[in-house]
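Figure 2 data, in text form.
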Amino acid sequence: MKYAEATNLPNELLTMSHEVGGKLARLRKARRLRQSDVALRAGVSRSTAVLIEAGNPSRTLSQVLRYLNAISPGSTLLELLQEADPALVTLRNSEETKRVRKLSAKELGELDF
């Protein structure tokens, strides 16, 4: 019989579940993979993939680990949590705000074009 796992979890664990799902979604996007392709490789339906990425606590650990392996073969759950994957590092670097300061008229005049 199925029942709602979320009702059995304290808020802290429910938050962790959502964070793991979000990290899986972020990793998949960083690796430029389609959700349907990852679901197929993991042996789950696309609707289950949606639930995994949403952090639904009713998904089994086996489903989550297969999904992770389909995105990044050989990666561990610890590596996912630490966001150590090179694709995530590249994505994070590209998202960082690049501050640009406005040059003064004097500095503009000194530039060689």
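Caption note: The chain has one domain: 5-84.
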